[in-house]
Amino acid sequence: MLDQIKGLHHVTSMAASARTNNRFFTDTLGLRRVKKTVNFDAPDVYHLYYGDEVGTPGSVMTYFPFPHIARGRPGSGEVGTTLFSVPEGSFGYWRERLTKAGVEGLKTDSAFGENRLHFAGPDGDGFALVEVKDDPREAWTGNGVGEDHAIRGFHSASLRLRDEGATAELLKFMGYDKVDAKDGVQRLRIPGGNGADVIDIETMPNINGARLGAGSVHHIAFAVENREKQLEVRKALIDTGYNVTPVIDRDYFWAIYFRTPGGVLFEIATNEPGFDRDEDTAHLGEALKLPTQHAHLRAMLEEHLEPLDA
Q1: What pLDDT is attached to residue 310?
Q2: Which of 50, 61, 163, 224 is disulfide-compatible with 31, CB 3.0–4.6 A?
């Protein structure tokens, strides 16, 4: 069993409108845009990152906004819901704030003894807030949400699968422990993690496969401290039979990818070097940052990409 993985690093999804996406995560959810760059494989599309003040691993929601992309179809083989940690007693504030912003899909429930407030993102994305007592992570309060209510980072993510068996065994190999199971949901937690410690597996044997589109999670990333730990994980996964990519430099972290038995795309990402490698912390996410291979496209991209703050 591996011990290098420390919880979630980031979750990357797809959107239809960059401006709407940016407004939702900054104005409505109060997160900070920590990086404005482009998709390495499709540089005419943004890659936007939102999180806490510095984009701490375990707090970062990222998006590829493809203009006019069709809405995704929920189904098996994907991340179903991404859940954020908020302080106990903050649901009244968030219900009022989300309602005022016209957010759809508001409903409350509880699972594994925790209260949850579900809501939909602009493209039908599945989200929920979870009330967590004494989450020690520092919140970003620069976008108008106070310390008593602000998002601390991820709480968890759920995987929607037709058969949980092989993926559950993979997560256990990655260092997760099964801690509970109820109503077709198996809960796994990484011990001593970074706060974004929980994965829930929802077993749904009778639903069709998901279709990727706006509102869909493209991949889910798990955090390791550095490149040395990442290479240890990569070797162990390959030795176990997984087809893992070479290490890819994503400027703000190094990444490897592999497809899980249930169909979900997993990434293992390093905590280093971080989002302040090319911007001062005070100005994260303000300028358009381009990877070296696309730097020559700056004039065209600045003309083509949708203004975020207009």
Answers
A1: 61
A2: 50
How distant, in Å, are the alpha carbons of 45, 61, 74, 196, 257 from that of 169? 36, 26, 24, 20, 18
Largest CA distance in the chain: 54
Radius of gyration of the chain (CA): 18
pLDDT tens column, 148-179:
999 999 999 999 999 999 999 999 999 999 99
Name the DSSP letter for residue 31.
Answer: -
SS3 252: coil
- Read off the tokens for 96: 């009022």
CA pair distance 197, 149, nearest whole angstrom: 20
What Å distances lie between residue 163 and 75, 79, 266, 290, CA to CA? Answer: 13, 14, 17, 40
User: H or E segment at 19?
Assistant: helix 18-23
Which amino acid, one-letter code, is at 127? F
